[in-house]
Amino acid sequence: MWRTKGDTDGEGENASGEGQQTSQEGRPSDQYGRQEPNERTRLLDHPRPPPHADGYLDPDDPAVSPYNLWTVRFLRAFTVLFLIISFLWWALLLVSIFVSPPGLHTRGSGFFDFAYTCLTIGNLLVAVIFFVAPAKAVRITTAIIAVLLFIDMIIILSVPRLRLEEGWVGIASVIWAALMAIWCIITDRVVAWGKREEEERLTGRPETRRSVREWLAVTLATAFAIIFVIIVILLTGTLGLRARDTTLPMYGDRILVDGDKYAVHLACVGNESYTAGKKDPTIILEAGENPSEYDFEHWAYSAYQNGTISRYCYWDRPGYAWSDNAPSPHSAGMSADALSEALAKQGEEGPWILVSAGTGSIVSRIFSSRHLKQVVGIMLIDPIHEDLLHRIGSPWRGFVLWGWGVISPLGIERLGGAIFKGRTREDRVYGKYAYQNGKFIKAQLQENLVADSLTKNEVASARNIQLRDTPYVLISSGIRSRTDAEWERKQKDLAGLTDRLVAWDTVNRAPHEVWMTLKGRMVMEKRLGELVEAARNVSSERLG
């Protein structure tokens, strides 16, 4: 306790006559009765006597702050440093969605590690902004976040397919997010301790009341923390669905391509057959806007059972169904190269008949131009023309795809569908709702980014290289042709892709997915049989 000048009257001066006095605790005091500053009272160096007779500061005095402690200042400096590091990592992950830096490509979508980094930045921002307003509610909610993040880490590390898809980038992101959550808990706890210590030292007691400003800060910090808890719960639920989906049996094989950077799914049905001593062509299916298993693989299987074809192979482009995502950027020509490599590694040789639909027709046309002798027939089902690729590559569509990709780790639709609508693994992996998958969205985004540039140039070159004597079938959607005049004109242009047009059919009342109607399937199978016959003759001429 400090003593005032009046309290020392009559006690005399010290030997030096400088008015130095002695406190009740035995430490020297100055002429105002204040104790000489030491390592614990350095903040009491006021130019004038304290305003209260008891020597304590007012609780609202700015000097009453946990920042007075070096430990608190140390923690805040490191929190800011961690925030800067997390932001730089976030920027790098953002760029890698569009252009994959060396060593940063992951076989998954890359949206999960981006989501974990966003969560990390959110936690650290709350810690920095509301640094001097510690709250037990924030510590509890952040502890829940940390526990859930460690559960996510265990799921990723324990499921081989998830571990492969997320790679070291995803694993590092979730571990960093968990560690930063723990750091925020420690920081908040230390600041609460420092605040209490300084209040006891400078005001004589710990402050139990809060100002309106402090209550507002605590309320906002707690609200943000609760939002983060909800986000992590959704992330964990979506990760659990992904782990569940990895157990879905797969027909065929996953084959590493492009220097083993990623794997694509390839499956073949049937055995090689020969007619008049010549090998019959194998059908290569190329899906349109959905995985092959959902688009028309079932139609091909029906044609196989009916004896129209003897063998067919289908694959999933990078990011579709069981295939990994490819590094960005990724064009249709790169997909064609991936298919070529997968076929070669599986020992598949021509002759081939290419059957494709929609946007997949672009890949088939490029593939044909790079395998001129082996491709002995082409069948395009309502294909997109290269002059219409700007519809796929529009900037607005790309922005929307990116936005859906960013929120895809929350899995709101997937979780709701699984819990309330009974959607299965098949629905999510290759079925009707595969579009909700982050890998699928990433693949669509990759197609969007280069559709009107790199891909358009590749398919334009392919058209010039394409052999003109290749048997060719074109099947168009009647509905699409009637409702889109430009689409109809471009279908007419595609009819001249080669000089050997076997047939061009416009199926009335058939949508873009022509095989969705009975008449469409019947026309497709009939024309495929005719194409096989025409291809046998070409195969004999080219391959001897």
From TrEMBL:
Which named protein is this?
Answer: Mitochondrial integral membrane protein-like protein
SUPFAM superfamilies of this UniProt entry? alpha/beta-Hydrolases
* Keywords of the record: Membrane, Transmembrane, Transmembrane helix
Q: Which residues form a coiled coil?
A: none
Membrane recorded as keyword: yes
Ranges of compositional bias, category Basic and acidic residues: 36-48
Name the residue ranges with Polar residues bias.
17-26
